[in-house]
Amino acid sequence: MHRGAFTAISFLLGALTSMASGYLGMKVAVFSNVRTTVSAQKPGWTACFNTAFRAGAVMGFALCGLGIIMLYVTMLAYRVHYPSPDQWVHLTECITGYGLGGSVIAMFGRVGGGIYTKAADVGADLVGKVVHGIPEDDPRNPATIADNVGDNVGDVAGMGSDLFGSFAESTCAALVIGSSIGVTGGWDAMVFPVIVSAVGIFVCLLSSFIATDLKTVKAENEVESALKIQLIATTILMVPAVYFVSIVYLPSSFDLQATVGDAVFTLHPWEATTCVAMGTVGGLIIGLVTEYYTSHSYSPVREVANSCKTGAATNMIYGIALGYKSAIIPVLVLSVVVYGSFTMCDMYGVALAAIGFLANLATGLTIDVYGPVCDNAGGIAEMAELDPSVREKTDALDAAGNTTAAIGKGFAIGSAALVSLALFGAFVTRIRHASNDALFANGVNMLEPLTFAFLIIGGMIPFAFAAMTMKSVGLAAMEMVMEVQRQFDEKPHLLDANPTERPDYDACIAISTKASLKEMVPPGAMVIFTPLLTGIFFGVTAVSGLLVGALVASVQLAISMSNSGGAWDNAKKYIEKQSPDSELKGKGSDIHKAAVVGDTVGDPFKDTSGPALNIVMKLMAVLSLVFADTFFAVNGGGGVFNLS
Question: Which interval of the chain is the signal sequence (predicted)?
């Protein structure tokens, strides 16, 4: 009875924290957009870069701080009811609701926000840029306000709640798998995963001064390197910092019950540190590989830009191929991290590696929020009809932000894969505990007919989800296109150089809002109800197959979709930077129009379906973990049909 109530309270706290951090991020972004535009009017690059960077930092540090404080205070409160180390296994099971709460809000924030922003963006691009040839964010375009609002909804609130969910779930998974550590190592050893995240905040805080004070941005070509240095510096500083806290908080040796089998491992602080370091370095490698495939400073994106010479079709082919190719190295890195951490510390090592991935979360979020702030600053410069040099400056900041946003998505996808695997390990641990080792004592047998059947079904879920979200954006974008065209037809003077009429911005905002609220329900419901119905009707072996299938397919699809979209976007920006006399003809040419088509298709790839697949694998896994006892209660884990 108490465990159910405590889990429900954790769920509410996780959901409220996720909503609060998203709201805070949007509030800060809205205040900072205008300030960045004003700073861009000043000579030099330092002021405008620092304004946008600090806006992201507020979101990053607030979210991490809120998340850790709420989680730790909740654990201390539950410790009153579960005072002895033998009872802490129940405490960690109650805490799993915190991760679920964050993840459910993230699902609707990510999917709803993605549909909102991309419906407006695609609609504004198709009618404005492609048909009528007016610039992006031109105040004559009725969808321009909805587009700018959408950047805050999708890229700030959506990304924030997504990464908060990853942080909460990775911590919950590590606590459940490592609950046996408390018996021999004490409270400090058991909460080591929370301590690692807390140390990450201080490391990110120190590193942030590099960009704003020590090595300031003085020229356009320094913007991207300044953001990259942040990621590299936090990764380098994180390893010795984690080793120091492992020596202080972990005993010289402590025991851990194996996830599979009856073995008890004796672990040491250096092994825990190595697992965290593997995750941290693995995250950096995935981030840098993502940058290589999505930045127009390198050949892959330039190849995509050159493919636009022969039209939109070849642009699409090159972009999709780039996305598939970009999944190779990240998947190999994830495989090495999983193998290394599992070999060293069993499934607890995988959970620590997931926390290592998110150790510099504050910096990751800073860089991520920086992008939409610069994007909106450019929109404000365009709408306020400021000097074109202001827009050029914000566009340069935004181009770097686009690449770093892709790096952020790479981090998010990689961490989601490890979090999902760690949650799966926690699910197996909890079922073993509930069944007194009657189930999963020797692991999950993938060759059982029921498990393998649901493995294939699990692999289908990400594709069904991507199809639903892509179509939702398409439907909403069509409605937006028709509304914008209707306004241009009814008010032809809107297209004059100095229009005497004002567009109806509210009508476009209403379309995006209604579409996002309506269209996010079916994909969200599918992800939430699939593991629940599978567990209740087919049992825990079917759930284990479902989770593994969804994890394997989601990782590949998420990386390829996010990177294809990022590459199309930056290929378009690369063409826009060229002069009319150059090979790529620059803005307004047929080559540019082909690039705009690619960018428009890439919008739902990189900002709706791709990133939301992180949440598919995490949410299904954390739901299964929270409802593990419920599944076991139905025919001893066999489900209603009891087929196994």
Answer: 1-22
